[in-house]
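G., before I forget:
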Amino acid sequence: MKQLLVFIRKEFYHVFRDRRTLLIMFGLPVAQILLFGYALTSEVKNAHIIISDQSMDANTTKIIHKIQSSSYFITEVKSLAGEEIDAAFRKGVVRAVLIFPPQFGEDLQHKGKANVQIVADGADPNTAKTIINYLTAILGDYQQSLADGASAPPGIVPELRMLYNPEGNGSLNFIPGVIALIFMIVCSTLTSVSIVREKELGTMEILLVSPFHPIMVLIAKAIPFLVLSLVNFTFILVLSVGFLDIAIKGSILLLFAESTLFIITCLSVGLLISNIANSQQAAMLISMMGMMLPTLLLTGFMYPLDNMPYILQLISNVVPARWYYLIVKAVMLKGLGFSYIWKETLVLVGMTTVLLSLALLKFKTRLS
Amino acid sequence: MNSVILEGITKTYDDGNVMAVDNVSLQVKPGELFGLIGPDGAGKTSIFRILTTLLLADKGTASVQGLDVVKDYRKIRNMIGYMPGKFSLYQDLTVKENLTFFATLFGTTIAENYEVIKDIYDQIKPFNDRRAGKLSGGMKQKLALCCALIHKPEVLFLDEPTTGVDVVSRREFWDILNQLKAQGITIMVSTPYMDEAILCERIALMQEGSIMQVDTPQQIIRSYPVRLYAAKADNIYKLVQDFRMLDAVSSCYAFGEYLHLTMKADKPGDIDALREYGISHGHQGLEVKEIEPGIEDTFIRLMNRKAQTNG
């Protein structure tokens, strides 16, 4: 027992005396959270649009005011002819042009029906669609306000409500993904690298020759990273709540329990990698390629899984991060209890058992 | 009973394509300072790893202190000290931290076995709080030896402990080994340096996985069967070529500033014949003399004979 404690203390020395490890450990979460939270957002904010008002009547002025008062757009009102629209898009700043034809106001008053044209930059289809949706919503809103009081034509008015995320905060979706990604990197990569380094240094030979049980070597290696990852997790939660306005709806205790489970999964992966790799670079490559990419692509936090080819959806089932992502989303964002996530938890427990037993069984008590 | 016994040990790598150790049998007596001498790739490290239970041999049996290296490997691991060839400690841990770690790992404390390492540890104690990575090569080696000794092993395996260490530290290191031997520890050490062979009690000369000769260094030198001559001249490069052209010469190789030569016939008058031959080829500053062979001469002779029988 004393051996284990001294061994664990040694591992902490390694971590705290190596700037690179510390940077990966604590710099990475901050960088990821800030990047995903502020830079890599898929929301549309401050999109440049040009409004070409050829009608210039009371109606268009009111609509333009409405558009200008929303935070989505930076507007510029000027009349553009056909080729000028093209030219404006080619410069790449303008995302959309809204054109009111000359008879817009008149048509609306007399015929009760008028046309507007929205031209959007389809080179970025997602942004274009979002902008079009926003603009149509504003136009629809205005139409609604005109109809009020007068004899409104019968119609279906959808009442929209974004459940769990009424403000449409994009951070909500990726925070669980980022957490999974960070655990994957920190636990798998750092653990495997730290074991392989012992092989490179020749100290592994001594560790094996010592009376200390080989399995204990693995445990001593894993425990510090488990502790540090939990500290890291707390850190990410504080960042998310403090900077990205995310409220943790579910039980924090459950969240920590599930995270501990996932960390153990990641550690097992790291231990398994250290069995295969013989150099730190190899360990790094295997964990980066083998773990990071699937975690990024096949968990559903960057790209929806439902849109993927069936075969990729099947493969995504064996990516542990996928299940953890579902769990965190359910607990953290929806405030669901254990009864809703026991299936995902069971899958993770199963995966961990298999991975950990493999890692322990394959660990060589000799050199080859 | 012998401390270390190897019987018909064979070890191959890459599915039998690379022969590392070829049918080696060897005994090391209790309390002996035994040397494995041979160049890189001779199979020294493989033998150490088999004896320290880190590798399994393909064929043959081996035992340490009467315990089988395969069956009783856990027991052996408790009673041996091992310093691997590429062993470099934890660079980011201090001297004290390294030592404490290894002491604890082997279930002991620095204080408990202090007398075993005292002489060595006293030399590095002033650097207790320095990181191992910042120590000189000789200091590192002493620290590594302390770490291997801290649990008072019965048998000590040192794989090329002096490789990459300066001459002064190397000499100190061998003094330390003799002190350890005096404490009754059996020591098996390997080295590629022939000048260190003479410092062992008995040595095994190894080449390409097999043992060519096992004896005391003195006996190995005495067993050199022919006269050995040393020669030099101003143009040593031409001298090698000229002597190699001479039919009567059996072997001729550069050795420091001299050439070492042996003759096929090995007669008393050879030395004059060599001198005349050199002068007749116009060599200036020619010097030829008969010398005592060293371990390296024996090694080269055995190596050449092996190459001849093989080819």
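The mean pLDDT of chain A is 84. Strands of chain A lie at 47-53, 73-77, 96-100, 117-120.

More on Monday.
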